[in-house]
Amino acid sequence: MNDPDSYEHVSSTVPVAHEAYWLVKSTFRGKNAFGGKVLNTRYFFIQQGWVVRVEE
User: Fold this and answer.
1) Which of 32, 33, 41, 45 is most buried, with most CB under 10 Å away?
2) Is position 14 within any domain?
3) What averages of pLDDT result for each successive group of 10 residues across the chain (56 residues)?
4) How far is CA 26 from CA 16, 34, 39, 52, in A?
């Protein structure tokens, strides 16, 4: 995200067990380098309360 102040939460799933992790899908909007708002999705892999990996 080019402008952290433009962050806008859209949705997040409840944590789901996936292999050795808890997996959470999060969708959000934020401004890109051209000033337009874009929709993004990231997958957060959690172990023992810590995010250990993030994927698109």
Assistant:
1) 45
2) yes
3) 92 97 98 94 98 98
4) 13, 23, 11, 15
